[in-house]
Write a structure and sequence with these properties.
Aminopeptidase; 434 residues; 13-stranded mixed β-sheet; two-stranded antiparallel ribbon; 15 strands; globular
Length: 434
């Protein structure tokens, strides 16, 4: 695929170079075309990989790579998005065709060193390979044997990634979102995997015990503030907190959680990705004891009614929060049920012996209060065709603009107001049509 597209890319780059009035964008496109030529073809990557003992296998069946996947997972995972059981349940629940599933195994001297689980899909007319769950996990990364990957060195890793990507066919772009810049203490393992853009941060609380966390993260004034909020909530009625274990009750709690999330999305003028994309069934399916996914559903109740909840997944000695919700009742919010729920969750997490509580990407006050570890996240792009290069340029510019807007309070507020106005106008237009 790549080799066939090169001549057209070269001709376009040549024509652009001859122009006397090249704009900054067309110059960038011309440089992108040169990049394709300098990277060589998939055959070149395979030949180079063979010289250093690299071989690649691709299968469309997740069961074919289960043993390799679980072996590479044994040292620990950065996210549920790397979990075999999580992804197996995802592709089953979402009914992703086998032909759209691609599991790429990279080996060095016959030993599996890396695995890329990728979804081939079409987005706005662009064919791309990407992670299966999209924005529904905090971060992603290839499954790797970290020690062997480190031993390969820069040139060896470059050959490995190029060989693995070179085995992928029928797309314009490989888009690997939200990848950490390090795995444990190992840094730079993915530096050679395409072009990287750092735009997000992952927030984690890492402590040896609740006492350690409480001592490091809560000042005297913070404890007083939490206690005052707790007193205000308790003044409204009996407060209870628990981990829901009964399956029927868990499904009912999840329905309430999604209803609370929907109300919050409407109030903020944000698209409800859980309902609009029909994702709710996946989270219900993960509750099943046979799903292989260890779900912990923490619930805060006031007079028996759910006022805040958190949907967490445990992988090894780490807990990952995927969804949180709270009541939108203004009277109840005076007692900060979301923060009171989180306080109890954090205490239970480290009391149970967890080493890490992962609260996901994106800055919030809650993460500032509890998280002592920040991990830069990168978007990785590997264009496979000239169209893929154009999409990479456009999307990376959009990501930079989005990160700037999110960091600017006034711009963020203006954009949110504009979006809410748009949603109201669209809603009125739909009602008029009815």
């Amino acid at each position: 695929m790549l080799r066939r597209s090169l001549p057209a890319g070269d001709r376009l780059a040549s024509k652009l170079a001859k122009g006397s009035r090249l704009t900054a964008n067309t110059q960038a496109i011309a440089r992108a075309m040169d990049d394709i030529a300098s990277q060589g073809s998939a055959a070149d990557a395979a030949a180079m990989g063979a010289r250093v003992g690299i071989s690649v296998r691709v299968t469309n069946r997740i069961e074919d790579v289960e043993a390799i996947w679980r072996s590479l997972s044994a040292a620990g995972l950065e996210s549920p998005g790397q979990s075999y059981d999580f992804i197996r349940l995802w592709v089953t629940d979402r009914q992703i065709p086998v032909s759209a599933q691609h599991y790429v195994v990279g080996e060095v001297d016959g030993v599996p060193v890396a695995l890329l689980p990728l979804h081939l899909k079409r987005v706005h007319g662009v064919r791309l390979y990407t992670w299966f769950p999209g924005p529904h996990a905090g971060c992603y990364a290839p499954l790797t044997d970290v020690r062997r990957l480190q031993e390969l060195g820069t040139s060896g890793r470059s050959a490995l990634w190029r060989s693995m990507i070179g085995a992928l066919k029928g797309a314009d772009l490989v888009y690997l979102r939200s990848m950490p810049d390090r795995i444990g203490e190992a840094e730079g393992l993915f530096d050679e995997l395409g072009k990287a853009l750092e735009v997000e941060t992952l927030y984690r609380a890492r402590f040896s015990s609740w006492e350690h966390c409480d001592r490091e993260q809560r000042s005297r004034s913070r404890r007083k503030h939490d206690r005052q909020q707790g007193d205000r909530l308790a003044a409204l009625g009996e407060v209870g907190f628990d981990v829901v274990c009964d399956l029927a009750e868990a499904h009912a709690v999840l329905d309430t959680m999604f209803a609370q999330r929907s109300a919050r999305f409407r109030a903020q003028g944000i698209r409800d990705i859980f309902v609009c994309d029909n994702i709710t069934s996946f989270y219900h399916a993960a509750l099943d004891p046979n799903s292989g996914v260890d779900v912990r559903l923490h619930v805060l109740r006031l007079e028996g009614q759910i006022v805040a909840a958190r949907y967490n997944i445990v992988v090894g000695d780490r807990m990952f929060c995927l969804i949180s919700s709270m009541s939108d009742c203004s009277l109840i919010q005076s007692g900060s049920p979301g923060k009171q729920c989180l306080l109890r969750v954090v205490q239970s997490v480290f009391d149970e012996g967890m080493s890490v509580f992962d609260m996901g990407a994106g800055f919030t006050d809650e993460k500032r209060h509890w998280c002592n570890e920040q991990v830069p996240l990168r978007q990785h792009y590997v264009p496979l065709t000239p169209l893929g290069h154009l999409v990479m340029l456009g999307h990376s510019h959009f990501q930079r603009l989005r990160a700037w807007a999110k960091a600017n309070a006034s711009v963020k507020s203006a954009l949110r107001a504009a979006h809410q106005l748009y949603e109201r106008i669209r809603g009125k237009s739909r009602s008029d049509q009815l």
